[in-house]
Amino acid sequence: MQSDQYSYIPILMQLILAVGFVVGTIIISGKLGPRRTSEVKDKNFECGIESVGNARIPFSVKYFLVAILFVLFDVEVIFLYPWAINFKDLGVEGMLKMIVFMALLLVGFFYIIKKKALEWE
Question: How far apart are CA 89 and CA 95, in angstroms?
Answer without folding.
Answer: 10
